[in-house]
Amino acid sequence: MWRTPAGRDSQGMAIIEVNAVRKAYGRRPAVDDVSFAVEEGEIFGILGPNGAGKTTTVECIEGLRVPDAGTIRVAGYDPVADHDQVTRILGAQLQESELQPKLTVRESLELYASFYPDPADWRPLAERLGLAEKLDTRFAKLSGGQKQRLFIALALIGNPRVVVLDELTTGLDPRARRDTWELIEDVRRGGVTVLLVTHFMEEAQRLCDRIAVIDKGRIAALDTPSGLIRRAAGSTVISFTPSAPLDDFALAELPKAAAVEEKQGRVTIHGTDETVNAVITLLARHHITAHQLRVSEATLDDAFLDLTEASA
Amino acid sequence: MTTTLTPARPARAARPSRRAAGAVLKTEATLFRREPAGLFWIMVFPTVLLVVLGSIPGFRDPDKALGGIRFVDAYVPVAVLLSMIMAGLQAMPPVITGYRERGILRRMSVTPVRPSALLGAQMGLHGVAAVISAVLSLTVGRLAFRVALPHQLFGYAFALLLAVLSALALGALVSAVSRTSKIANAIGSAVFFPMMFSAGVWLPVQAMPDTLGRIVELLPFGAAAQALTEAAAGSWPGWDHIGVLALWTVLLSAAATRWFRWE
């Protein structure tokens, strides 16, 4: 077991601890009282609308920004005070950064590998990220997706215990995106903790063990992807076109129905499994046929919109 | 000796970081060589200018306005200073500002290597390039125009080193106050012409009218030109010129350190 710099034993298995962190730019708070803990070996997602404070939060964890209040620990180290220790165990892919325009892919991989005490072999890494053909290409000549993949390689090159990936697959085509997801799953299988900032629901749902939804600088919800979906009001969506007009009154009586709307003869009801049975009973009682009946699970998308609207 | 389990790090940490700083320097040197325009203006242009001017017959005759020496003799220190101005003021600030603007410094600050390693490498490389260019000007001056090598060699080297430092400090200050590399280019050019003038590119300082010469001597490259000329003639450079140059170097470095932003 490792020890914290003060010689204390770590609490539980958390490798990243964020405690009541606050950060304001001028008078506008970007991050307002955010707390969460990421467990070792976990893929932890931070999800939120643009400008919600996601990037500021991870920049505090990376030690790029100093929080106004609160504490952060990465493997027991303070990202600002113990910056050297943190940089050795944390690999980062920043949202917006570049490399020297005339530096080749090979040179940048070799250079960044030399920064770390125990770096990964960059050749298989480059191969895995589809950069093997581009080793002698200068940074300025790479496409957006190739640059992005190079930065993912640089985040992993130091054999980190934690990787922080900010907008991992932005700029990647669907094929490269899927390959990257597989790579991240492999990385985690190797015992590395992944902190992922994203606004792609599909990505969050596929990769993350747990997700913190951040909105307006605060944590709106923290749960597993399926937990978030269940938590959202009306996680089951029922829609149909009734053969005869339905009594609005009867619809409003439905149990657990969060929202009922009727548009151009088509009825959409958000509810739970219980609502589905009630709707079928109701229709049967009134001898109404439901044309094109569809029952679907809400997606993380719906849950996300629900959560971020609720706190508005 | 109660807590023995705390990780012993500083001793082990020192070596990889020095190796990494070496790798940064090596990489920046490679990139430096990939900028032919920069190399030309720093390493070739000052000597070419010296050769062009030295080829004009009248400039190879002793000149009373210059205290009896030839124009080409007076111009060697000017070419030497020109290389420093080119390196410190023209070439370096857009590079450093670009590194900040493009987030290259930021990316490096999340690695175990401090981004200051990049700045150190850039300043070192531009400084070395300026010194090589100076040696080239002295050599060509000696071989092509029989300009005597500096008689007070240590004094010359000392003044030269100080002049390089002040040029780098000035360039660092320009990088510090410029938000983008475009602004760095603009500010660099605005400062470039007065600095070239004071170094004597158009008219060697010795040949300037009295009052103008006095004013120019208070500027870093005017003082440097005088110090180099004195050392070339065989005396230790005057402490007034050395003092002015040193004061500028300190002030410019302090201002650059004060205002530099990493992002």
Task: Give a structural overview.
- The complex is a heterodimer of chains A (312) and B (263).
- Chain A has 2 domains: 14-223, Rossmann fold (3-Layer(aba) Sandwich), CATH 3.40.50.300; 230-310, YebC, transcriptional regulation domain (Alpha-Beta Plaits, 2-Layer Sandwich), CATH 3.30.70.
- With 312 residues, chain A is of the alpha/beta class.
- Chain A has a 6-stranded mixed β-sheet, with helices on both faces. Chain A has a 4-stranded antiparallel β-sheet with strand order 11-12-10-13, covered by helices on one side.
- In chain A, helix 8 packs across helix 11 (300-310).
- Chain A has helices at residues 54-62, 83-89, 105-113, 122-128, 144-156, 174-189, 201-207, 225-231, 248-252, 273-285, 300-310, and strands at 14-25, 28-39, 43-47, 69-74, 90-93, 162-166, 193-198, 210-215, 218-223, 236-242, 259-263, 266-271, 290-297.
- Chain B has helices spanning 10-33, 36-54, 71-101, 104-109, 116-145, 153-177, 181-199, 210-217, 220-233, 239-259.
- The longest helix of chain B is centred in the first third of the chain and has 31 residues, at 71-101.
- Chain B is elongated.
- The N and C termini of chain B lie far apart (42 Å).
- The chains are: A alpha/beta (312), B mainly alpha (263).
Rg of chain A, alpha carbons: 24 Å
Q: Class by helix and strand content of chain B?
A: mainly alpha
The CATH architecture category of the largest domain in chain A equals 3-Layer(aba) Sandwich
What topology, given as strand order, has the largest sheet of chain A?
Answer: 5-6-7-3-8-9
List the helices and strands and how they pair.
The complex is a heterodimer of chains A (312) and B (263).
Chain A: E1 14-25, E2 28-39, E3 43-47, H1 54-62, E4 69-74, H2 83-89, E5 90-93, H3 105-113, H4 122-128, H5 144-156, E6 162-166, H6 174-189, E7 193-198, H7 201-207, E8 210-215, E9 218-223, H8 225-231, E10 236-242, H9 248-252, E11 259-263, E12 266-271, H10 273-285, E13 290-297, H11 300-310
Parallel strand pairs in A: 3-7, 3-8, 5-6, 6-7
Antiparallel strand pairs in A: 1-2, 1-4, 8-9, 10-12, 10-13, 11-12
Helix pairs in contact in A: 8-11
Chain B: H1 10-33, H2 36-54, H3 71-101, H4 104-109, H5 116-145, H6 153-177, H7 181-199, H8 210-217, H9 220-233, H10 239-259
Helix pairs in contact in B: 1-5, 2-3, 2-5, 3-5, 3-6, 3-7, 3-9, 5-6, 6-7, 6-9, 6-10, 7-9, 8-9, 9-10
